[in-house]
């Protein structure tokens, strides 16, 4: 684990832009609308021999009844949720960075936030954002000095003073000899994918036991892809809770379009994708599209049918039949019927993900492959096509993740889909690849040992 520094501040002051600059990425959604970052995000920063974690929190709103002696008042809706998550982030941090908007000037909210972070007892840096230096800096920054915090003017959008910003944050860290925790492996990364309000965040909270994700009955409450680290039996797991994926025609909001793209991208970077479906609502066309997409890309994934506690017991068998038939063309994909509310079957998720990932790395020696090939073909010959029966010369394993097997034959165009499926089933059974994707390819060759 690394020491953590949180970026906090009002909505739309540019925290996410600074976060993206620091981690050299575009993980946080940036948009000219207050409150676009709802969940907190974490990223790793490495500078000048030091490594730390930066946290991008949701924007804080404090109402007019706020008093420094009493702390933040109870708020409703998203603002109270964002404030709660910011408080949790602060509890984990060794330092704080209060971000303000230099163009807006010093607002009452900024004064209250300054008092709020000062009471934390942590080192604090005041980052006056959206300032590009020169006369503009001289005009915009003087009033912020009255907050009595170490201050730096900068621009996340244009990169002004970013190097100095990194150095200032680094200097907030405790000395290296006081921070002796070694860098740990990230562990298995699991992407939670699915339509809005399928229960992805509720499942992450239920599995990890952390009330980390914003959970609401409103569809689309998770907009960013958010990493949640969980330790089980001394092993680290990272759940990436992505924004819900709607049917493209319904994506009219610009921010939501960014979120959907980020969700799909996050699933490709994860080790295993967990597709969450709404068991109460039933299988939709969008669910089928997501299954098709993951299968076509040979993505290692499992399906969680959530909210099964809301399905009538006498209807559950029929529901299971629908999902089994819908996934018949990718029968290797495991289906778990779960409930975030009752925690049914949640303990099976991580072991299943471990199994899938392990199977993705099956490697078979070439000698064994060709003995297996002979046995498979002997058991069932390929069908004759245009009076010619396809002839197998040999096979190799081209790669892992997914296991990819290449068959060299006299005419690849003569291979029928049914026989290709037979070959895949045989390979799965022989090499014990139950749930990982498998890629089977055929190449035409006129010699027994053709070049690959």
Automatic annotation (TrEMBL):
On whether Cytoplasm is a keyword of this UniProt record, the answer is no
Q: Name one Pfam family in it.
A: KH_dom-like
User: Which key words tag this protein in UniProt?
Assistant: GTP-binding, Nucleotide-binding, Repeat, Ribosome biogenesis
Molecular function via GO:
GTP binding; ribosome binding
User: Record-annotated residues binding GTP 2?
Assistant: 194-201, 241-245, 306-309
Q: Is Repeat among the key words of this record?
A: yes
Q: Which CDD domains does this entry report, sorted A to Z? A: EngA1 (cd01894), EngA2 (cd01895)
Q: Which domain of life is it from?
A: Bacteria
Q: Which GO terms describe its biological process?
A: ribosome biogenesis
Q: Which InterPro entries match?
A: G_ENGA, GTP-bd, GTPase_Der, KH_dom-like, KH_dom-like_a/b, P-loop_NTPase, Small_GTP-bd
All copies of the EngA-type G domain together span 3-177, 188-361
Quick one: which residues bind GTP 1? 9-16, 56-60, 129-132
This protein's assembly is summarised as: Associates with the 50S ribosomal subunit.
Instruction: State its role.
Output: GTPase that plays an essential role in the late steps of ribosome biogenesis.
Q: Which family does it belong to?
A: Belongs to the TRAFAC class TrmE-Era-EngA-EngB-Septin-like GTPase superfamily. EngA (Der) GTPase family.
Q: Which HAMAP family match?
A: GTPase_Der
What is the protein name stated in its UniProt record?
Answer: GTPase Der
Say which species the protein is native to.
Answer: Desulfovibrio psychrotolerans
Q: What is the lineage of its organism?
A: Bacteria, Pseudomonadati, Thermodesulfobacteriota, Desulfovibrionia, Desulfovibrionales
